Amino acid sequence: MNAAASTSSAVSASNLSIHLGHGADRFEAVQNVQFNIRSGEFICILGPSGCGKSTLLGALAGHLQPSGGQLLVDGKPVGGPGPDRGMVFQQHTLFPWRNVIDNVAFGLKMRGVNRSQRLQQAHEILQLVGLQGFERRWPSQLSGGMQQRVEIARVLINHPSLLLMDEPFGALDAQCRMEMQQLLLEIWGRIRTTVVFVTHDIDEAIFLADRILVMSPRPGRIIEDLRVDFARPRDAEVVTTPEFMHLKRHCLELLRHEQGRALPRLSPLGIPTAEPQAII
Predict the structure, then answer these.
(1) Is residue 272 part of a domain?
(2) Listed residue (188, 189, 186, 145) closest to 168, CA to CA
(3) pLDDT along the chain (280 residues), means of 10
(4) Looking at the chain, which terminus has fewer C-beta neighbours within 10 angstroms, N or C?
(5) Per-residue three-class SS string for the chain
(6) Cα 159 from chain centre
Protein backbone atom coordinates (compact mmCIF):
# COMPACT_ATOMS: atom_id res chain seq x y z
CA MET A 1 0.00 0.00 0.00
CA ASN A 2 1.48 3.34 -0.96
CA ALA A 3 0.49 6.94 -0.59
CA ALA A 4 -0.76 7.09 -4.14
CA ALA A 5 -3.34 4.42 -3.30
CA SER A 6 -4.90 6.56 -0.58
CA THR A 7 -7.03 9.67 -0.58
CA SER A 8 -7.95 12.00 2.25
CA SER A 9 -11.06 13.93 3.19
CA ALA A 10 -11.77 17.42 4.46
CA VAL A 11 -14.21 17.67 7.38
CA SER A 12 -16.20 20.58 8.77
CA ALA A 13 -18.76 21.13 11.51
CA SER A 14 -20.91 24.21 11.94
CA ASN A 15 -23.16 24.86 14.98
CA LEU A 16 -23.27 21.09 15.48
CA SER A 17 -25.41 19.73 18.30
CA ILE A 18 -26.13 16.08 19.11
CA HIS A 19 -28.75 14.81 21.55
CA LEU A 20 -28.85 11.28 22.91
CA GLY A 21 -31.58 9.29 24.64
CA HIS A 22 -35.35 9.54 24.40
CA GLY A 23 -38.13 11.29 26.25
CA ALA A 24 -37.27 12.28 29.79
CA ASP A 25 -33.82 10.69 29.40
CA ARG A 26 -32.89 12.83 26.39
CA PHE A 27 -29.84 15.06 26.92
CA GLU A 28 -27.48 17.24 24.89
CA ALA A 29 -24.14 15.45 24.46
CA VAL A 30 -22.50 17.88 22.01
CA GLN A 31 -23.32 21.59 21.85
CA ASN A 32 -22.64 24.16 19.14
CA VAL A 33 -19.41 22.55 17.90
CA GLN A 34 -17.52 24.20 15.06
CA PHE A 35 -14.27 23.12 13.38
CA ASN A 36 -12.56 22.66 10.04
CA ILE A 37 -10.15 19.80 9.28
CA ARG A 38 -8.02 19.98 6.17
CA SER A 39 -7.41 17.01 3.94
CA GLY A 40 -4.56 14.86 5.30
CA GLU A 41 -4.46 16.41 8.78
CA PHE A 42 -3.99 14.39 11.97
CA ILE A 43 -6.46 15.76 14.50
CA CYS A 44 -6.82 14.69 18.12
CA ILE A 45 -10.00 15.36 20.09
CA LEU A 46 -9.03 15.72 23.74
CA GLY A 47 -11.38 15.90 26.68
CA PRO A 48 -12.56 14.29 29.92
CA SER A 49 -14.60 11.10 30.03
CA GLY A 50 -18.25 11.71 29.14
CA CYS A 51 -17.63 14.98 27.29
CA GLY A 52 -18.99 13.78 23.92
CA LYS A 53 -15.74 12.84 22.14
CA SER A 54 -16.98 9.41 21.08
CA THR A 55 -20.40 10.85 20.27
CA LEU A 56 -18.76 13.27 17.86
CA LEU A 57 -16.78 10.44 16.30
CA GLY A 58 -19.97 8.37 15.98
CA ALA A 59 -21.59 11.21 14.07
CA LEU A 60 -18.61 11.41 11.71
CA ALA A 61 -18.90 7.66 11.15
CA GLY A 62 -22.57 8.11 10.30
CA HIS A 63 -23.90 6.08 13.23
CA LEU A 64 -25.46 9.10 15.00
CA GLN A 65 -27.52 11.87 13.45
CA PRO A 66 -26.98 15.52 14.47
CA SER A 67 -29.93 17.24 16.10
CA GLY A 68 -28.78 20.61 14.82
CA GLY A 69 -26.18 22.29 12.62
CA GLN A 70 -24.09 20.73 9.86
CA LEU A 71 -21.47 18.00 9.65
CA LEU A 72 -19.77 17.71 6.27
CA VAL A 73 -17.18 15.35 4.78
CA ASP A 74 -15.78 16.66 1.49
CA GLY A 75 -18.60 19.21 1.39
CA LYS A 76 -21.39 16.64 1.67
CA PRO A 77 -23.59 16.02 4.73
CA VAL A 78 -22.88 12.78 6.56
CA GLY A 79 -25.97 10.69 5.88
CA GLY A 80 -24.85 7.33 7.24
CA PRO A 81 -21.90 4.93 7.36
CA GLY A 82 -19.76 4.62 4.24
CA PRO A 83 -16.60 2.89 2.99
CA ASP A 84 -14.83 6.26 2.78
CA ARG A 85 -14.72 6.30 6.62
CA GLY A 86 -12.95 3.61 8.64
CA MET A 87 -13.42 3.18 12.39
CA VAL A 88 -10.98 1.72 14.93
CA PHE A 89 -12.25 1.13 18.49
CA GLN A 90 -10.49 0.68 21.83
CA GLN A 91 -11.38 -3.02 21.90
CA HIS A 92 -10.72 -4.98 18.74
CA THR A 93 -13.66 -6.38 16.75
CA LEU A 94 -11.77 -9.22 15.07
CA PHE A 95 -13.60 -12.44 14.22
CA PRO A 96 -12.16 -15.11 16.57
CA TRP A 97 -12.99 -17.88 14.07
CA ARG A 98 -10.91 -16.30 11.28
CA ASN A 99 -7.13 -16.14 11.19
CA VAL A 100 -5.25 -12.88 10.85
CA ILE A 101 -5.09 -12.67 7.07
CA ASP A 102 -8.74 -13.63 6.62
CA ASN A 103 -9.76 -11.01 9.19
CA VAL A 104 -7.83 -8.36 7.29
CA ALA A 105 -9.19 -9.48 3.90
CA PHE A 106 -12.80 -9.72 5.08
CA GLY A 107 -13.87 -6.28 3.86
CA LEU A 108 -12.56 -7.01 0.36
CA LYS A 109 -14.39 -10.34 0.40
CA MET A 110 -17.66 -8.53 1.13
CA ARG A 111 -16.97 -6.25 -1.83
CA GLY A 112 -16.55 -9.24 -4.15
CA VAL A 113 -12.78 -9.07 -4.65
CA ASN A 114 -11.45 -12.47 -5.68
CA ARG A 115 -9.45 -14.49 -3.15
CA SER A 116 -6.00 -14.15 -4.72
CA GLN A 117 -6.29 -10.36 -5.02
CA ARG A 118 -7.62 -9.82 -1.52
CA LEU A 119 -4.95 -12.06 0.02
CA GLN A 120 -2.23 -10.20 -1.87
CA GLN A 121 -3.52 -6.87 -0.58
CA ALA A 122 -3.88 -8.28 2.94
CA HIS A 123 -0.24 -9.43 2.85
CA GLU A 124 0.85 -5.90 1.86
CA ILE A 125 -1.17 -4.29 4.66
CA LEU A 126 0.13 -6.74 7.25
CA GLN A 127 3.67 -5.90 6.20
CA LEU A 128 2.83 -2.20 6.61
CA VAL A 129 1.73 -2.77 10.22
CA GLY A 130 4.67 -5.06 11.00
CA LEU A 131 2.82 -8.38 11.18
CA GLN A 132 4.39 -10.32 8.35
CA GLY A 133 4.77 -13.92 9.48
CA PHE A 134 1.62 -13.83 11.62
CA GLU A 135 -0.87 -14.30 8.78
CA ARG A 136 -2.10 -17.73 9.97
CA ARG A 137 -2.33 -16.94 13.67
CA TRP A 138 -5.70 -16.68 15.43
CA PRO A 139 -6.65 -13.45 17.25
CA SER A 140 -6.45 -15.28 20.60
CA GLN A 141 -2.78 -16.05 19.90
CA LEU A 142 -1.84 -12.36 19.63
CA SER A 143 -0.99 -9.76 22.25
CA GLY A 144 -3.26 -6.75 22.72
CA GLY A 145 -0.96 -4.54 20.66
CA MET A 146 -0.82 -7.07 17.84
CA GLN A 147 -4.61 -7.41 17.85
CA GLN A 148 -4.87 -3.65 17.39
CA ARG A 149 -2.39 -3.81 14.51
CA VAL A 150 -4.67 -6.34 12.82
CA GLU A 151 -7.66 -4.10 13.52
CA ILE A 152 -5.90 -1.12 11.92
CA ALA A 153 -4.88 -3.27 8.94
CA ARG A 154 -8.46 -4.45 8.49
CA VAL A 155 -9.63 -0.84 8.27
CA LEU A 156 -6.79 0.40 6.05
CA ILE A 157 -7.24 -2.31 3.42
CA ASN A 158 -10.43 -0.50 2.35
CA HIS A 159 -8.43 2.70 1.67
CA PRO A 160 -10.60 5.04 3.77
CA SER A 161 -10.17 8.74 3.13
CA LEU A 162 -11.08 9.43 6.77
CA LEU A 163 -9.70 7.26 9.59
CA LEU A 164 -11.66 7.55 12.85
CA MET A 165 -9.97 6.20 15.98
CA ASP A 166 -11.75 5.98 19.34
CA GLU A 167 -9.04 5.62 22.03
CA PRO A 168 -7.54 2.66 20.14
CA PHE A 169 -4.56 2.29 22.48
CA GLY A 170 -6.35 2.98 25.76
CA ALA A 171 -6.25 -0.65 26.94
CA LEU A 172 -2.51 -1.12 26.28
CA ASP A 173 0.36 -0.79 28.76
CA ALA A 174 2.52 2.33 28.56
CA GLN A 175 5.38 0.83 26.55
CA CYS A 176 3.10 -0.90 24.05
CA ARG A 177 1.04 2.26 23.76
CA MET A 178 4.07 4.33 22.79
CA GLU A 179 5.12 1.70 20.24
CA MET A 180 1.64 1.76 18.69
CA GLN A 181 1.63 5.56 18.59
CA GLN A 182 4.94 5.55 16.73
CA LEU A 183 3.69 2.84 14.36
CA LEU A 184 0.54 4.83 13.64
CA LEU A 185 2.59 7.92 12.79
CA GLU A 186 4.80 5.87 10.47
CA ILE A 187 1.74 4.48 8.68
CA TRP A 188 0.09 7.89 8.47
CA GLY A 189 3.32 9.37 7.11
CA ARG A 190 3.06 6.96 4.19
CA ILE A 191 -0.66 7.05 3.40
CA ARG A 192 -1.55 10.61 4.58
CA THR A 193 -5.23 9.89 5.04
CA THR A 194 -7.14 12.28 7.30
CA VAL A 195 -7.15 11.04 10.91
CA VAL A 196 -9.53 12.03 13.72
CA PHE A 197 -8.25 10.44 16.93
CA VAL A 198 -10.18 10.57 20.22
CA THR A 199 -8.25 10.46 23.50
CA HIS A 200 -8.35 11.69 27.08
CA ASP A 201 -4.55 11.34 27.35
CA ILE A 202 -2.80 14.71 26.97
CA ASP A 203 0.63 13.25 26.15
CA GLU A 204 -0.86 11.06 23.44
CA ALA A 205 -2.71 13.98 21.85
CA ILE A 206 0.36 16.21 21.77
CA PHE A 207 2.64 13.44 20.45
CA LEU A 208 0.33 12.49 17.59
CA ALA A 209 -1.54 15.55 16.42
CA ASP A 210 -1.15 18.41 14.00
CA ARG A 211 -3.93 20.10 15.97
CA ILE A 212 -5.79 19.31 19.19
CA LEU A 213 -9.48 20.13 19.58
CA VAL A 214 -10.00 20.45 23.36
CA MET A 215 -13.54 19.72 24.56
CA SER A 216 -15.36 20.85 27.68
CA PRO A 217 -17.34 18.56 30.01
CA ARG A 218 -20.82 17.66 28.83
CA PRO A 219 -22.42 19.13 26.88
CA GLY A 220 -19.22 18.98 24.86
CA ARG A 221 -18.01 22.17 23.23
CA ILE A 222 -14.70 22.97 21.52
CA ILE A 223 -13.00 25.29 24.00
CA GLU A 224 -9.69 25.62 22.14
CA ASP A 225 -8.08 24.60 18.85
CA LEU A 226 -4.39 24.09 19.60
CA ARG A 227 -1.75 23.79 16.90
CA VAL A 228 1.12 21.36 17.58
CA ASP A 229 4.20 22.58 15.71
CA PHE A 230 6.72 19.86 16.54
CA ALA A 231 8.59 18.69 13.45
CA ARG A 232 7.77 15.38 11.81
CA PRO A 233 8.73 12.62 11.92
CA ARG A 234 8.48 12.58 15.72
CA ASP A 235 10.20 10.25 18.15
CA ALA A 236 9.73 9.52 21.84
CA GLU A 237 12.32 12.10 22.89
CA VAL A 238 9.96 14.96 22.03
CA VAL A 239 7.88 14.24 25.16
CA THR A 240 10.77 15.37 27.40
CA THR A 241 11.30 18.76 25.73
CA PRO A 242 10.36 22.04 27.45
CA GLU A 243 8.05 22.90 24.55
CA PHE A 244 6.12 19.66 25.01
CA MET A 245 5.78 20.24 28.76
CA HIS A 246 4.61 23.80 28.19
CA LEU A 247 1.83 22.63 25.88
CA LYS A 248 0.91 19.86 28.31
CA ARG A 249 0.57 22.37 31.17
CA HIS A 250 -1.65 24.53 28.99
CA CYS A 251 -3.94 21.57 28.21
CA LEU A 252 -4.11 20.67 31.91
CA GLU A 253 -5.08 24.24 32.81
CA LEU A 254 -7.81 24.26 30.16
CA LEU A 255 -9.32 21.00 31.38
CA ARG A 256 -9.06 21.90 35.07
CA HIS A 257 -10.73 25.26 34.48
CA GLU A 258 -13.63 23.67 32.62
CA GLN A 259 -13.96 20.89 35.17
CA GLY A 260 -14.19 23.48 37.94
CA ARG A 261 -16.95 25.31 36.09
CA ALA A 262 -18.90 22.08 35.65
CA LEU A 263 -18.87 21.04 39.33
CA PRO A 264 -21.82 22.08 41.56
CA ARG A 265 -21.40 24.91 44.00
CA LEU A 266 -21.79 23.89 47.66
CA SER A 267 -23.49 25.72 50.52
CA PRO A 268 -21.61 26.07 53.82
CA LEU A 269 -23.29 22.79 54.86
CA GLY A 270 -21.89 21.02 51.81
CA ILE A 271 -25.24 20.87 49.99
CA PRO A 272 -25.24 21.55 46.21
CA THR A 273 -26.89 24.88 45.47
CA ALA A 274 -27.52 24.09 41.79
CA GLU A 275 -27.80 21.07 39.56
CA PRO A 276 -24.32 20.08 38.30
CA GLN A 277 -23.79 20.59 34.58
CA ALA A 278 -21.58 17.56 34.16
CA ILE A 279 -19.96 14.75 36.08
CA ILE A 280 -16.65 13.51 34.71
Answers:
(1) no
(2) 145
(3) 63 96 92 96 94 94 94 94 91 92 94 93 95 95 94 94 95 91 94 95 97 94 95 92 96 82 54 47
(4) C
(5) CCHHHCCCCCEEEEEEEEEECCHHHCEEEEEEEEEEECCCCEEEEECCCCCCHHHHHHHHHCCCCCCEEEEEECCEECCCCCCCEEEECCCCCCCCCCCHHHHHHHHHHHCCCCHHHHHHHHHHHHHHCCCCCCCCCCHHHCCHHHHHHHHHHHHHCCCCCEEEEECCCCCCCHHHHHHHHHHHHHHHHHHCCEEEEEECCHHHHHHHCCEEEEECCCCECEEEEEECCCCCCCCHHHHHCHHHHHHHHHHHHHHHHHHHHHCCCECCCCCECCCCCCCC
(6) 17
Give the domain CATH number at 159.
3.40.50.300
Domain membership of residue 99 as a residue range: 3-16+31-262
Instruction: Identify whether 168 is part of a domain.
Output: yes
CB 208 within 8 A of CB 198: no
Q: How many domains does the chain have?
A: 1
Answer whether residue 180 is part of any domain.
yes
- From the list 55, 152, 70, the residue with the least C-alpha distance to 104 is 152
Is 21 inside any structural domain? no
